[in-house]
């Protein structure tokens, strides 16, 4: 995954990139072969069979890749209003029963001022943008670009897909797409579930760049971002508990995380046509994926707002390693439900009872907590589904504008291939 952090290099390298390559070259020349052999004997390095030189080269490359994050940002990240970025998708987190050799690496870049960021990026990487947008920005500059980026409805994530890059170290060719979003828009989505687009993405494991060491929080980047993400995780796990309580308790971790993963796909029109039909199942299938979800939600499960809930070893070893238990529920069931609903954004609770009132979130929570489980779950599901449907349509429209007709058609065909492969009509490619 460290290769990802180098994947934004252009053919003309920056001073930082050249310095990284120089260090890599010197590392190749000076590494101690005895130390290498010692690591091999201790089983701490995963290398291929072959000559000592080939093994040494592979070992050094592995070491360099694992430490690449120390060199921080490459050109596309090196902007004054850059906040953070993360990678996601099947290339970053391989999914069960499917290959990802031809898939794009997915990146989200969070910035404070998208207009300034795009203007600078257009000047440095014009080929990342379609012809119309590139010339529009050049002609009208910041004022009109700001109007365009601020007035478009929906999540407002501007994507540049099918960016090609060749690794100068081994000539490996990589393809990625990156989306740019303002910090303010992201914080609103995380706290309010206004679009459930990036909030939904961050309810699942991602890899924060450049550290790559913490799946659970962007705490090294921005305090507000960290706090908002914690609210998002708490809301998503509370929603999952509500959807499964009490019939599925104790709740095995597969069902817990499956419900969370489905939040941002329920209502998404792309799940009807142009998407992997088994996507949600693949996101949580396999021990490695479950382990990533455990890491992501470990601190949330220990929070005071979820007092009494805990993952414990499962009594049914043939299913999952762990189950979610509720150890200290209140005697009043509606009070239990109300406490969980307090973790759900006000916006969602109000929309779920809007035909009754829409001014006091706690009144809405009281109303919901006194409903039957079936009725309450249906109301919440419909609310989220409507939000996701609208945001997916808006984002698709923006994608057509940002990518241009040629790349949009290419992207649509790639999505259709995923759908057909998930149905077993063609092979994964």
From TrEMBL:
<dbReference type="GO" id="GO:0005743">
    <property type="term" value="C:mitochondrial inner membrane"/>
</dbReference>
<comment type="pathway">
    <text>Lipid metabolism.</text>
</comment>
<keyword id="KW-1208">Phospholipid metabolism</keyword>
<keyword id="KW-0496">Mitochondrion</keyword>
<keyword id="KW-0808">Transferase</keyword>
<dbReference type="Pfam" id="PF09139">
    <property type="entry name" value="Tam41_Mmp37"/>
</dbReference>
<keyword id="KW-0443">Lipid metabolism</keyword>
<keyword id="KW-0999">Mitochondrion inner membrane</keyword>
<dbReference type="InterPro" id="IPR015222">
    <property type="entry name" value="Tam41"/>
</dbReference>
<keyword id="KW-0548">Nucleotidyltransferase</keyword>
<dbReference type="GO" id="GO:0032049">
    <property type="term" value="P:cardiolipin biosynthetic process"/>
</dbReference>
<keyword id="KW-0460">Magnesium</keyword>
<dbReference type="GO" id="GO:0016024">
    <property type="term" value="P:CDP-diacylglycerol biosynthetic process"/>
</dbReference>
<keyword id="KW-0472">Membrane</keyword>
<comment type="function">
    <text>Catalyzes the conversion of phosphatidic acid (PA) to CDP-diacylglycerol (CDP-DAG), an essential intermediate in the synthesis of phosphatidylglycerol, cardiolipin and phosphatidylinositol.</text>
</comment>
<keyword id="KW-0594">Phospholipid biosynthesis</keyword>
<comment type="pathway">
    <text>Phospholipid metabolism; CDP-diacylglycerol biosynthesis; CDP-diacylglycerol from sn-glycerol 3-phosphate: step 3/3.</text>
</comment>
<protein>
    <recommendedName>
        <fullName>Phosphatidate cytidylyltransferase, mitochondrial</fullName>
        <ecNumber>2.7.7.41</ecNumber>
    </recommendedName>
</protein>
<keyword id="KW-0444">Lipid biosynthesis</keyword>
<comment type="similarity">
    <text>Belongs to the TAM41 family.</text>
</comment>
<dbReference type="GO" id="GO:0004605">
    <property type="term" value="F:phosphatidate cytidylyltransferase activity"/>
</dbReference>
């Amino acid at each position: 995954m460290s290769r990802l952090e180098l994947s934004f290099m252009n053919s003309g390298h920056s001073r930082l990139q050249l310095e990284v390559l120089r260090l890599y070259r010197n590392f190749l020349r000076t590494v101690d072969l005895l130390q290498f052999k010692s690591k091999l004997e201790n089983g701490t390095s995963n290398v291929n069979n072959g000559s000592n030189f080939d093994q040494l080269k592979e070992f050094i490359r592995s070491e360099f890749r694992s430490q690449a994050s120390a060199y921080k940002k490459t050109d596309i990240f090196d902007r004054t209003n850059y906040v953070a970025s993360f990678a996601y998708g099947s290339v970053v987190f391989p999914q069960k029963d499917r290959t990802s050799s031809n898939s794009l690496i997915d990146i989200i870049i969070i910035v404070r001022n998208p207009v300034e960021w795009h203007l600078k990026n257009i000047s440095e990487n014009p080929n990342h943008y379609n012809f119309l947008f590139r010339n529009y920005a050049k002609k009208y500059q910041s004022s009109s670009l700001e109007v365009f980026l601020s007035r478009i409805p929906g999540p407002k994530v501007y994507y540049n897909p099918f960016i090609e890059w060749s690794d100068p170290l081994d000539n490996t060719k990589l393809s990625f797409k990156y989306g740019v979003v303002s910090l303010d828009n992201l914080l609103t989505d995380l706290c309010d579930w206004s679009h459930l687009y990036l909030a939904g993405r961050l309810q699942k494991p991602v890899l924060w760049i450049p550290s790559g060491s913490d799946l659970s929080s962007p705490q090294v980047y921005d305090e507000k971002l960290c706090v908002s993400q914690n609210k998002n995780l708490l809301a998503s796990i509370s929603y999952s508990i509500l959807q499964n309580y009490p019939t599925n308790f104790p709740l095995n971790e597969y069902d817990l995380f499956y419900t969370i993963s489905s939040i941002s796909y329920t209502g998404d029109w792309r799940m009807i046509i142009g998407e992997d039909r088994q996507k949600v199942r693949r996101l949580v299938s396999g021990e490695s994926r479950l382990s990533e979800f455990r890491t992501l939600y470990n601190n949330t499960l220990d929070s005071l707002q979820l007092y009494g809930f805990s993952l414990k070893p499962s009594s049914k070893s043939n299913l999952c390693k762990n189950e979610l238990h509720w150890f200290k529920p209140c005697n009043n069931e509606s009070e239990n439900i109300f406490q969980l609903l307090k973790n759900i954004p006000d916006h969602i609770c109000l929309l779920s009872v809007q035909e009754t009132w829409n001014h006091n979130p706690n009144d809405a929570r009281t109303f919901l907590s006194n409903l039957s489980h079936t009725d309450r779950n249906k109301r919440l599901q419909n609310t989220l589904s409507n939000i996701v449907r609208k945001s997916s349509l808006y984002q698709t429209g923006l994608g057509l504008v940002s990518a241009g007709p040629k790349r949009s058609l290419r992207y649509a065909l790639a999505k259709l291939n995923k759908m057909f492969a998930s149905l077993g009509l063609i092979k994964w490619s």
